[in-house]
Amino acid sequence: MRPSYFINFMMGIYIFIFFAYLFGPLIIMSITAFNSAEFPSITPWECFSFRWFNEGKIAYDGQHLAGLLTDWRLHDGIISSLIIGAGVVTLSVPIGMAAAIVLTQVRSQLRDIFYSISIMPVLFPGVIIGISTVVLWDRLAGLGGEGFISDIGRNGIFLTILAQTCFISTYCFLIFVARLQRFDQTQEEAALDLGASQTQVFFKILVPYLSPAIASAAVIAFLFSFENYNTTVFSILSDQTLTTVIASKVRLGISPALSALALTIIALTIIAAATYEVLRRRAEKRYKDTQEKFVKEKAADNRINKNYKIGFKVPRGIVTILILVVFTIYGATQILKNDLYGQSCIDAADTEKKSKFYDQLNALDAIELSEEELSGGELGGNQDYGDIFGDPSLFQDFGGFD
Amino acid sequence: MSADVELSDVSVTFGSFYAAKNVNVKVNGGEFFSFLGPSGCGKTTLLRAISGFQEPSEGKVLIDNKDMSGIGPNKRPTALIFQNLALFPLMSVSENIAFSLEVRGVSKEERKKRADELLELIALEGQGDKKVHQLSGGQKQRVAIARALAVEPKVLLLDEPLSALDLKLRQRMRTELREIQKRVNITFIYITHDQGEALTMSDRIAVMNEGELEQIGKCDEVYNNPLTPFVATFVGENNPLYGKVTGIDGDKAQIETADGQYLAMMNESKKLNIGDESIAFVRPESLFIPRDGDNFDNKINVNIESFEFEGNLKNFYARLQSGAKIKFSVPNAIDTSTISSGSSIALGFDSSKSVILPKASLAID
C-alpha cells in the first residue's frame, strides 16, 4: 500500500465522520417525519406515513397532535417570523450600508473607534439586547399615556424588529465594509468630474457596485432574524415567532410535526442553494464564453483555437449518490416487505395502542378506594401539607418586592 | 470652445508640507500644455486644484478669467482623465461615454447619437455595447478620452494616462492624443513624469520640482536652454562638469574644472560672475569623436569604461581623469570598432551646445 493511498483513505474516513457528525442528526430527524408514531422515532418503526405533513392525528389518549398543515400556532409563528424578517432586512441593510460608507470617509484614529463601536452589538449577549429593548420601550410607552407610542412600545413584533436590527445591522455592516474595501474611489471622483451630483454618484456608481453586497446582506439578515431565539424570546412579548413556537412545543413534548417542519426547511434551503449555484455557474459560463470569444477575435493566429477532446469522466460525488440510492432502496424494500405503510397499517397500530390504553384505564378503574383511603394514608389526602402557608415565620426573612 | 487656465500664486499645503508652492502659470486656450516632474513633485495636486477636487490653500485658479474658488468639480468646465482611467466597470462602453449626458438628463436617443459620434472620433465604431473589460489597454484609453469629451469641456486634464501602456502603444497613443486635441481644439493640460511624452506632444511644458515651478517654455527652449541644473538633468540627459568661473566673454563663460577648462553658454537670466561655483552641462549627443576638419572649441580626454547598444544609438560610459563619470552617444551608423573598453580617447564639443549654470542640486542626485 502506497502511503499516498493510505493518506487518501484516512482522509476519506475523516471526511465521512465529519459529515456524519454534521448531517447525521438532520438525516435522522428527517426520517422520523415519515414515521406515524406519536414521538419522533425511527425504532420502533410503526408505519410509513405523510400524516405529519398534513393533518396530524388524534392520539389514542384523545390528545390532538396537529400536523404541519393544520397547526395554526405554527402558521402564526411563521407569519410573524416572515414579517419580522422583512422588517429587519429593510432596517438593517440601509443602516449597515450607511455605517460602512461612513467608515470609508473617516480617516484618523476616529476610524478605529467608530469601527469598534459599530461591531460591538455582535459581542453583546442576545438576551441582554432583548431585555434592554423591552425595558426601554416599556418606559417610553409608559411616558406617552394612551396612544401610538404606547401601542408600538408594547407591540412584540415591533420590538423584536428593533432588537434584532441592533445586532443584525452589524453583520450587514461587515459585509458592506468588505465590499467597499475593494472599491476604487477614483470612480466616484470621475463621476463627480463628469458632472454628477453626490446623489447621482450614490445611485449610479456606488449602489450598482454594492448590489451583490446588498443581496447577500439581505439574505443573511433575513436568515439571522428567522432563526433567532434568545433575543426574540424576550422582545416578542405575547406574540409568537416560529422559534418561540417550536421552543414551547419542545417544553410540552415534541411531535413528529416538528420533524416534518425541519425537513421542509432543509428542503427549501437545499433547493434555494442549488438554484443559486446553477444560476451562478450559468452566469460564469456566459462570462467565460464572451471572454473567450473576445480573446479569439484578438488573437491573430489560431493557436488557442484548438479543439480538445474531453474524455468521459465519472462525475465527482457519484459515491455519495450511490450510497444514498442503496440506502433508499433498502429502506423501501424493508417497509414494503413488512407491510409498514398505508392506512391499514396505521389503523392496526392505532387499534393496538388504543386497546392497550383502555386496558390500562380498566385496570385503574378496577382499583376501588374507600373513603378512608382517599382522605389520608398512602394514596392521597392533603393532611401532610395542611396549612403550610399558615406558618407565621414563613416570610419572616423575605425582603419583599421592589 | 477652449479656455485659458490661469494659476495665480497657487499653493497647496497638507499640514506643514507644501505640495505646491506659489505656482504662477497661464495656459492659453487651445494649447497642449504639460506639467513635467518626478513623482511627488506636486503636479497631480495642481491638476486636482484645476479640476476642483483640491481647493488651493492660497492663490486662485482662473478658468476663462473666472475665479473657480468654491466651485465643485461637477460644476467646472473641465474634464479629468484619471491615471487608472476610472472607467465604470458595470456599464457598457456607450453608457460610460454617455454618463455625463445621462446625469444632465439628456434623452436616451440624444445620448446614443452623441456616443456614436464619439465612438467614431476614437475609431471604435460599433463597439459601444461591449463591456469595459472586453477592451484592450489602448481602447480603454480612448474610451476614457471620449467619456471626458462627451460634455464638451473647455479644458481636458490628463493625469499620466499613458503610464500603464506598453512602449509601442504609448508611442501610438501620443500621436493619437495630439490628433484628437487638434480635432476638438480644446485646451489640454497633461501631467507626466516621462519627458519623452511631454516633449513630443506639448506646445509648452512646465518643469516642476518639489512643489515649485523650475521653468516654463517651449519644448526646444526647455531642452536647449535649461534654467536650472535640475531642468538640465531632468529633461533629457546631461553630463555635469563642476567648477569655478574663471572668465566671461560676452554670453559665454569659462569654467575651470579638475579636468581642464571649458567654454559654455550663459543664460541671459542666470548671469555669472568670476569665481562663482557653477556647473557646465553637455549632452551625450553633443560630445563627438573628432574627425579630420572638425574644430571644437572644447576638448575632453576620457577613459572608456563600458558600452551599451540601444539600437539607433551606441552609448559609451567613460571617466575623466578626476574620476567624474561621463556618457556620450554615437549614432549607430558611425563606425566605432576602434573604441574598446579601457582605451583612452579625446572628445570634442562646441561651446554653443553647452550651458553653464550656477551650482544647484541635480535631478539625478
What's a quick, concise take on this entry?
Chain A has 402 residues and is mostly helical. Chain A has helices spanning 3-32, 72-105, 110-123, 126-143, 148-153, 156-180, 185-193, 198-227, 232-235, 242-252, 256-298, 318-337, 342-366, 371-375, and strands at 56-58, 64-66. A two-stranded antiparallel sheet of chain A has the order 1-2.
The fold-level CATH name of the largest domain in chain B is: Rossmann fold
**Oligomerization status of the protein chains:** heterodimer
Which architecture of the largest domain in chain B per CATH? Answer: 3-Layer(aba) Sandwich
What is the largest interface, and how many residues per chain? A-B, 21 and 29 residues
Shape, principal axes of CA atoms of chain B: globular
- Beta-strand proportion of chain A: under 5%
Q: Give the low-pLDDT segments of chain A.
A: none
